[in-house]
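yo, Major facilitator superfamily (MFS) profile domain-containing protein is done. seq:
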Amino acid sequence: MEETTTFHGLGHLFITIFLYCFSSFIVAPVITDISMAALCPGKDECSLAIYLSGFQQVITGVGSLIMMPLVGSLSDKHGRKCLLTLPMTLNILPLVTLAYSRGATIFYMYYVLKTLTSIVCEGSVLCLALAYVADNVPEGRRASAFGILTGITSCAFVCANLSARFLSIGVTFQQQWEFYQRCI
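structure:
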């Protein structure tokens, strides 16, 4: 590997990770409201939403524990960029269902899709991005590159939360639905 490798060669990765994290984090604050409206309309408390959320987190955690070594092995075989596309694409599917409709039936479809896709997507994007950085940056500069990637992820989190505070729920999901329709 050449020692002249700079962080400018990773610009495509940094922009992609920022957009991915921004789009993932912008919907997080409104998912609670959507869950409550779909599962327990008109109520202030909903134990079903709490139980479903906990169950989803357990399944996602155990599934990620099993899937991470497989994702790492596949990325060694087929390439980091190629495999990085898979979780980024899969993560769109559950949100498209909520963009289509927010009724109870569609919410359950979202819930199942989100649980299944989170098994593959949760954590794998950042792990694959860090592996890509490690492959393309000289050993002496990796810590800086890892810090920049983590900073970009944190910046996306802050920007998405600020944006979510100023956008309505309908606008957030409508923009994703229009993007999805343009892609097909």
